[in-house]
């Protein structure tokens, strides 16, 4: 998950409930004084980085990073620099961010990335991902990923709770075929997973449901790109969804999964409209969340430096 914000003159005022503020204090060591201190320190640090002068972050964005990094200043600096560097080096994900482009409209209409509107019984954000929801011969995987990242950026705009309670991901594998796997360059998947390590938040658990016959083959390939800590967070439920109810409150799950929540079709329409409404914000983000490599102290970083020709990738690093 990335954090992208726009500059504002308003001082940061948390909207967390008293219960969540207490949780942030107990688990993250957060209080009002520490919030203000980290905002000031990070602003001063960014001002001293010549290559980050295009970056626009408000206090909310800094606090999201702080919470996701458990208020470790060094970790914040590392993740911020890496995330914005990658957003610059990965035009296949972060360029052409106009949700009204026909190919992006078509990708949004697929419903590949669907955050649920309610939190689970542990207060966590639940995100449904559907890698088999589109025709791999009609849609480019890059367009699907662009749509997904746009939804992600819109999702975090007003969701402070996410960065305190965390998130879980449901991978709905229904419809996923070998064609989805073969039509998606492996280098694209590796870059995607590399980017995830720069985000200030990683999933608590990843649930795989409605798995298909090709799932195990793909699963074996994918787990080669992640470390043991993330592997322990993977939970395979098989072709059914009933065992998912033990982990996530059935009431908030989509009707398609036997829950009481919005259907997948309704969620798809809702997020498509939300992204369209935030068109100006997203297009500004594309321009203003980039690193100026010509001004980076030392050697500038290129995509080839980071990924190599076919990608010499580090494993996904999660905390």
From TrEMBL:
Pfam families: CRAL_TRIO. GO terms for molecular function: phosphatidylinositol bisphosphate binding. Residues 101-265 form the CRAL-TRIO domain. InterPro entries: CRAL-TRIO_dom, CRAL-TRIO_dom_sf, CRAL/TRIO_N_dom_sf. PANTHER family: ALPHA-TOCOPHEROL TRANSFER PROTEIN-RELATED, RETINOL-BINDING PROTEIN PINTA. This is CRAL-TRIO domain-containing protein. It comes from Daphnia pulex.
